[in-house]
Structures are given as structure tokens and as C-alpha cells.
Amino acid sequence: MSQVFLARADVRGALVGLVLGLALALGLPALPGVGAGLSLRTLTVCAIYALAAAGVGVLYGRLGLVSIMQIGLVAVGGWVTLRIYHATHLPFEVVMVLAALVTAVVGVLVGLPALRLSGLSLAIVTLMVAGALEVLVTYAGFPNGGDGFLGRASGGTLAAIMPRPALGQSDDDFFRYVGVAVVVVLALLRWLLMVRPGRTWAAIRQGEAGAVSLGVNTVAHRLFALAVTSAVTGVAGALLAASSGILDPASFKAQQSVLLFATVLIGGVFSLLGAVIGGLLFYGLPQLLSTVGVDGNLVFVVLGLGLVQAITTTQAGIAGQLGGLWRRLRQPRPRRPREVTA
Amino acid sequence: MNRILRATAALGVGALVVTLSACVPESDPGTIQGAPSAAADDLKCGLGTGEQAAGEPIKVAAVATASGGVDFSSSPNSAKAYFDCVNDNGGINGRPIEYEFGDDALDPTKTAQLAAGYASDESVVALVGDATFVGCDVANVEYKKAGLYSITGVGVPQACFESSNIAPVNAGPRTSALAVLQYFERQGQADTFFAVGLNTRGNGDWAADGIEKYTAEAGIDLVGNVLSDPAESNYLPLVSQIKQAGPTSLVIVDPAPITASILAAAEQQDAKGDIQWACTASCYDAQFGEQIGDYWEGFVSNSELALVTADSKDANQWRAVMDEYADADAPRDTFSQAGFLAAKIFVDTLLPLDADTLDRETVSEAVLGVKGYESDLLCAPWYYGEADEHHANHATRTAGIEAGAYVELEGCQDVTDPDMAGILEREQSEGLLNK
Amino acid sequence: MNLLPFVVAGLVIGSVYALSGVGVLVLYRTTGVLNFAHGAVGGMAALLVWQMVELRMQPPVAIALGVAAGAAIALLFGLVAGPFLARVDQLRKAIATLGLALALLGLMLFVWNDKARTIRLESSRISFDVAGARVNVTQLVCLGLALLVVVGTLLALRYTSTGTSMRALASDRELAAVVGTNVRLVENTAWAISGAVAGVSGILLADQTRLEPAFLTFLIIPELAAVVIGRFVSLWLTLVGGLAVGVGQSLVSAWPTVSAFSTAVPFVVATIVILVAARRRVVTVRVVRT
Fold first, then answer.
1. Is the CB of B113 less than 8 angstroms away from the CB of A38?
2. Is the pLDDT of residue C208 over 80?
3. Structure letter (DSSP) for residue B88
4. Which among A245, B129, C122, C261 could bridge B79 via Cys, Cβ 3.0 to 4.6 Å?
5. In this structure, are residues B81 and B87 in contact, taking their beta carbons and an 8 Å threshold?
6. Is the pLDDT of residue B179 over 50?
């Protein structure tokens, strides 16, 4: 049984990804040139946003659900993290799990009315939720050790900062910490996609009527998917809050949600590699462009046009193209002699 | 389809023709109307030798918000212009300054990242001319760990003024708002007062808090202290609130574009009335008077540094350096003055030192030791000093709009802030105002 | 409190939402593309008008060129991306326009810095009192134009040949192509018209609200709310929807306790409408299932 399981191509792919991910997470800080300052910090945040990207990717790629509100959910995760920490001072790991749970609940509550929707209606609703969450986040601000439910110190008092987790105090250690957390969460997600729920989701994407006729409770499954992806996004929010100990509403605008959605589509929605690429594009590309002296605002132009291109010509995104390249490299040549001669 | 294509092409060509024929450049961009012209001596920056510095470069950096909806890059840009001028005039005793700034795109996470980046680069000796709208708190954590100090050009949120390793040259929104209030108080126009701000943490609420505390102390009737959502589209409620409260004077503590929208809504309702309208230094900008139109003749604004038209040594040098070393269309505003001043303070601090020993440690020590720094751009001497808060600039000027342009209404006046007692006390006890 | 000024302001903004919504709707019905970039196109037009006026161009000429620029941007996107978009489903079509919105937003932020800008139409300077509310001519123009565009569009769809083709495309694209409708021409016309409408509404919104790129780009949310209330079909209901959203938003903002959430009104209204509509559809699915 286990050998059969291991022999499956997708399982082998996932295991290779897991090993590679762990190696990168643990080894990257030691590399010369990467292991200090700006680039490492950037990669840390890229890894965090890869989780949010994975949420978008799974919803769209596996269930055909468009969610343009993911950055809003990151904000929810971050808010809950800071709130729980300032109220209880529990260890970060506990806070992170709690934040994931709360974000899952929020994601489901927000998504609940939209569950019966699909396609365009859902895209519109989530875009509007993104707008509404921006209003809400700006109104509430982020907890910083103040009193009351909002926990927001204002006026003359200064903000309190949440310390980093004990295992990730320095930048190097924090990158490893984030890296391992991201790989573990992505691995769990990958596992979920390979077992029954994932296959059911695929069936729903293939055709709702078909899935219903097979006796699949589509609403329950969508609810579950929404909860899982929201929890993953909540973890991203928690890690982001831990990264600098304090958050600002300015980081969570509706346009960021649109941008994230664009990068995920450019990266590729059918695999988690696409999510990682999406995270890199979302956060690493602006940094890269700004170091070579390109104005930060032009990132929007690049990614916007990239989205149009991805939608019209390359559905599987960069990850899909990489996958295609990989398969072509491994394919023994003689199989298609005609192509070679032509 | 061809028809449409042709129509579009025709339209495009037509547009081009009309644009070209209709444009009459009014004045040379970049120069400031009403300002005295530059003298040759103004370009003697630093040592003033006129020789290119060729030694080993000294690396200096800055973090500024340049994209993401807010553009504060005029501060690092003018700092760069001044450093270029210094490098053309013998540098820091022969060593040129190598300057770069990172754009945080209005994202505090990115501010922290850039800060960590510069902090880990041991060759960066100091930060000069920073201007960030967000993230002073997170940046300070990084600087503190690395023993790095920033002479910030423009600080906006509270954290920029209450950090151990950050000291801004400007006065900040809270001081600026209080300055407006106290100007009206001196004019006998503050029987009842109204304040409008932005609901942003550590910024709008900080300024509102200052106004509340001061009015309570001074016995001024604060009839309104409203914070609005940054994404608000409809300023009618605000205008009718103001109309109903009927204050004698009012201050708007918002970024300039929002202030302009509020004024447009007020003009639409003809709500100007007998109220004295004013805003903080954020709308002290040459373009502003012309944008809000003649309805607002007499509109008052605070200016945190000298007016851009001022005729004095450092103000003249700032204009000359900008004309020579910066882009023609780079803004000539308070932020630009602030960046220039930060750079000048830095250069004047390093020049007496031995150029060969300059590293992060020696530079930090020298920067911390700055006190009693005088410039005609400022109202009172500027200082750094070892402390958990830095707010040296708390004396400002007031300007008003006359015929679409700002003119000075009142010269330097010290601003009273109930929460600044600690800073004032330290100024005296540590002798920070004297060299 | 005198609520009349709020109702007036709400009606004015609402009518521009509706005007904009009509542009979205015409394009959607003809090409199947729900244009998320409608607000961004309007923002671009408004900023171009500002720039041209700043360069001492006559305001009427500048406005005409701004509207033309809106039409040109939309048409260009239609010409370049249209053939590709025709092959993908409605959801992907809409997502592609998100890309356009991002690109335009970035371009606007890049070209125009964050200094204060206002568009002051000449007509805004003429105002008069109506029962305690101050009304200016631009506001009357907004209301009138929205009505005019709805009626005009209805008439054009009914009585012009292009209008007939548009209706044909809306009801069955394949069939329309088979019977000899020039699909590409009709689609491009729809793009240009919708772009021009976006330009007009962008300029009016900039006069009435704020002239800032991100702000104008995300006004697509209340504009879409109007279209949603029109159930993606009805021009009249879109007009009603726009007015309802505008007035609702304005009235909510009149009460200080809830005014912070006035920007969320379009979202709430549209979500409720979508859900009610979806509920009906679910019922039909159930009939099939049993």
C-alpha cells in the first residue's frame, strides 16, 4: 500500500518539493551574499506571502473560486495574532495556531454567503470584501498593547512591539523559522490535495452538476476549502506580524489583494510551486526592480500586463511552463523523431 | 474596424496638434517665483575648494517613501544634490560621499527590511535625509541593534519623534497643528476651534491628542476634533459638521490632496463663512494656492522651515544647489529643504573629524554629539543627543495665501506642546541649544 | 439635522456611479467582459484633463480630449486583448481587466506625484440654494447626463444598426456571427463607447470627489454595485442602483456613529442583491436535482 502510494508521480513530486523546500529554508541563510540584511529579509517576507498565494492558488486552481480578498485575510491573521499576544503573552507558536483558527472562522463567515456563488459573482463579492476589509482595518488599526477590544494605543502613548519567536530571534534564525513553517504548511496543503478532499475539489472544478450527481455536498466542500485556505492565510498574517512585531493598515490595501491575485496567476495556479513563485513576484520583484533603480509604481504596470498575458496565453503560469520544460528534458528524445528532424 | 482605427488615429493626431499649439510654458520650471536669484558663492558646499573629491567613498543611505501613493522622495533627492555639491568641493576632507536611498512603497514591512539591510551593511556609516510616512518604530529597532543613527529629513508619525536612533529635522504634524492653533490664539481668532484629521494610528490621533490637551490647558473651546477615513469620498458630512459648529478658526491636519478635496466640498457648500481656515505644513506647497482657487484667498498654512522664497544664506544655498544638482522638475518644497538641511548638518559634523578614521562608530558618536546647530532655515538650534525622543524643531513660521501664492504672515514662534516638557527640560539641563 | 444636502450629494454621486455602470453594462452585454478597469480608465482621463489644463489648454478642449483618451485606452485594450479574450470564459475575461486596472494605476502613480490636484469645472462655480441645500450646475449635469445616457443607450440599442448588432451579440454571439454580424466591429465600438463613458464619469467624479489615482480606480466597487443591482441586464435598474448606492452612502455618512463605515455601503448592498439573485438560481438547481 505504502509502496504504491510512494510510486505515484504526484507523491514523488511532492516529496521532492518537500526536501528541496526544507533544504532551501535551512541552507539559504548560510549562502554567501544572501545571508545578510536586505535580501534575506526580503526572502523571508516572500516566503510568508507564498502562503497567502497558496491560498489564492488552491481556491482558484483547484476549485475555480476567485478570491480577491486574500490580503485582507492576512490582515485579519495579523490582527488576531497581535491581539492575542498583547492580551495573553502566550508563546508565538500557540498564538499562531489560534490566529490560524480565528482567520479560518472569519474566512468562512465572510465566504458563507458567497458559497453558493461562483465565477463572476464571487469575484465581484470578494473584490468588494477586499474594499470593505480595507475600511475596517483602517478603522480598527492594529493592536499595539493598548486597552479595550481594539487594543490600540493612540494619542500620546507609544506602540508596544511583539517580540519574535524564541527560536527565530536573529534574521538568519527567523528566516529558517519562517521557511520551516511555510514548508510544513505547504506540505500539509499538498497532502490534503492528494487525498480525498483534494480529489473531490477537483471534481467540483470539473463540473458542479457532475459533482452534485455523484452525491458530493458541494457547499460543505467549498466551506472546508475556504476554511483551510483561510487558516493558511492566517498563518501568513501571524508570521508577518512576528517579522517586525507591529503592523500598519497601509500594508493591507485592496490594491495589494488584486496584486497578489495577479502574481499567483502569473506564477501558476495549478501547483504550489506557482504559489511560491507568486510570493516571490509579489514581494521580491518590487525590491529587485527598486535596487536596479526602477520606480516602485511601475511594478503595478509590469504585473498588470503580466496578468493579462497569463490569462490570455499561458493558463498554467510560470510553474506550468517550468513543469513542461522539466518533462521535456526528461523525455527520451527518440520518442518523437519527427519533431527533431522538422 | 478600419473606420474606428482611422478615427482613433485622426483623434490622436488632432490631440497632439492641439496640445502642441495650446501649450504656452508660463515660467521656467524649477525656479521659484519671488525668490532672489543665486549668487556664485552659494555653490561653495562643504570645504568649498571646487575640486572633485577622489578618496575612498563614505557610504551614506536613507529610507524614504517614494511610491505607493505618497511621494516624499524630495527629501533624499535634495540631500543627494547637496552631497553631490560637497563632492565637487573637496568632499569630506578628500573623501566623497556615496549616497543611496531605498523606497519603502508605504509599507512598514518594507521599511523594516530596508532598515535591516542598511544596518547589516557595515560600510553604511549613517542615514541622512530619510523621509518615511510609516515604520519609524520598526526601523528604529534595527538601527538600535546596529548602533546606526539617522538624521531624518521628514518624520510624520509619532514614532519618528520618539525613537532613540532617529532625529527628524522637521517639526511633524502635531507641532504643526499646534502652531496653527497658537497662531490663531495670538491673533485673537481662537475663541472656538475645530480640528480635522486623518484616522491613522500614531499620526492623525497623535495630532488630535495634542490639540485636545492644549485647548484644555489654554481654555479654548474645542467644538470639534474629527478624524476621517483616508478612503473617504464624501466630505459633505464633515463640512456640515463644521458649518453647524461654527468655530472662529479651524485646522486641517491631512495630506495636501485630501485637504484640497475638503476645501472643494466646503466651497461647493459655500461654507467658508467667517471661519479662519488653515492647514498644517503638509499643504505648504507652491502648487497648492493655485489648485484650491481664489475662493480661498487668505487661507493660512504652517511652515516648518523657512519659506521657500526666503532670502538668507542657507535658503539661498538650498535653491542654488537644487538648480545646479537636482532635476529641474524636482519639487522645491519644505521636504526638499529638510533633506538639504539634514545633509548639511551631517557634512558640517564630519568635516572637523579625521577623514581616515570615519566608520560607523566614530560617525555615530559625532552625530550624537551634534548640539546647538544653527541655520537660517530653522527657527531654533537643532541638536541630536542621547535620548529616547528627538524633537528639536518646535518653532515654526506661518504663511497665508495672497493672490494664489504663499506669503509670510508671522515669523518664528515657539510652539507649546503639553507633552514636550521632558524635551524642553533636557534642552536646558544638557545645554543642547548651545554649541 | 437637515438631511437634504446629503440626499442631493448622494443623488449626484449616485448618478455618476449609474452613468459609469451603464458603460460597464454595455460592454459586458456586448463582449462578455466585465471591465474591472473602468474606474482606472476614468481616473486616467481625469488626470489627463488636469495635465492639459495645467499646460494652459482651454478646459472644454481638454475635457473633450480626456474623454477621447478614455475611449482610446479602452479601444486599444479591446483591439489588442479582445481576440484572445474571446476564447476564454467570462471569469477569465474579467480577471484580465484586473490586469489592465493594475497597469493603469501603476502608470498614473508613476506619472503624477502625490501633490494636491483639483479639477474645477466652470459649471461648478455657478450654484444656488434649494431648500437649504447648495446645488451647482455640475451636479445638475451629472443627474441629467445619467438620465440622458440611459435613455440614449436604450434608443440607440433599439433603433441603430450597431445597437441591433449589440443586442444580437448579447443574446447569442455564435448565432450573430453566423448571420453575418461583424462581431469585431461591434465589439470594438462597445469598447470605445464604454471607454468614453468611463472618461466622462471619471472627470465628473474627480470634480465631485477626489482627483487621486488609487481612489478613482477603486470607485469601480460602487459602480459595479450599481450594475449588480441592475442584474447585469437592465439599464433602468442600473440607474436606480447607482442612485440608491449613492444616497445610501451619503445618508450613512450623515450619522457620526456609523459614518466611518459609509464606504462599505456599496459592498453591503451589492452582496445582498447578489445573494438574493443567487438564491433564486439555487431553487432552479434543486428542481433539476429532484
1. yes
2. yes
3. T
4. B129
5. no
6. yes
Using a CB–CB cutoff of 8 Å, tell me whether A287 touches chain B: yes
Judged by a CB distance cut-off of 8 A, whether residue C192 touches chain B is: yes
CA nearest to A45 within chain B: B109
DSSP A4-69: HHHHSHHHHHHHHHHHHHHHHHHHGGGSTTTSSHHHHHHHHHHHHHHHHHHHHHIIIIIH------
User: Distance of CA A205 to CAs A199, A268, B248, B377, Å?
Assistant: 10, 16, 64, 66
Amino acid identity, position A8: R
Q: Tell me if chain A has a CB within 8 Å of the CB of B200.
A: yes
What pTM was estimated for this model as a whole?
0.83
Out of B18-27, C51-60, C169-178, pick the least confident.
Answer: B18-27
pLDDT tens profile B75-100: 999 999 999 999 999 999 999 999 99
Least Cα distance to B380 among B179, B92, B95 occurs for B179
pLDDT(A155) > 60 = no
Ordered domains of chain B (ranges, CATH)? 40-171+307-393 (3.40.50.2300), 173-303 (3.40.50.2300)
Cα–Cα nearest to C277, from C216, C240, C237, C228: C228
Q: What are phi and psi of B170, to 5 degrees?
A: -85, 180
Contact B374/B383 with Cβ under 8 angstroms?
no
Give the pLDDT of residue C200.
Answer: 94
Are A116 and C94 a contacting pair at CB < 8 A? no
By Cβ distance, the residue of B70, B231, B256 closest to C116 is B256
**Is C81 within 8 Å of A121 when comparing Cβ atoms?**
no
Q: Where are the beta strands (DSSP E) in C103-262?
A: 127-130, 133-136
Using the Cα atoms of residue B74, residue B79, residue B149 and residue B433 in order, give the sign of their dihedral.
negative
Mean residue pLDDT of chain B comes to 86
Whether B259 sits inside 8 A of C116 (CB atoms) is yes
Task: Name subunits touching A (3+ CB pairs < 8 A).
Answer: B, C
> pLDDT tens, C115-133?
778 887 878 778 787 777 7
Which of 77-96 (C) contact A at CB < 8 A?
A: 81, 84-85, 88-92, 94-96
CB-defined contacts B:C, below 8 A: 135
From chain C residues 81-140, the ones with a CB under 8 A of any chain B CB are 109-110, 113-118, 120, 124, 127, 134, 136
pLDDT in tens, C121-167: 878 778 787 777 778 888 888 889 989 989 998 898 888 888 888 88
Q: Classify strands B395-402 and B405-414 as parallel, antiparallel or unpaired.
A: antiparallel
Give the residue on C whose Cα is nearest the Cα of A298: C106
Residue of A nearest to C274 (CA): A121
Q: pLDDT (tens digit, 9 = 90+) per residue, A233-275?
A: 999 999 999 987 888 888 888 888 888 998 998 988 888 888 8
Cα gap A140→B201, rounded to integer Å: 9
Work out whether the CA dihedral C139, C144, C145, C147 comes out positive or negative: positive
Which residue bears the cell 466651497? B267
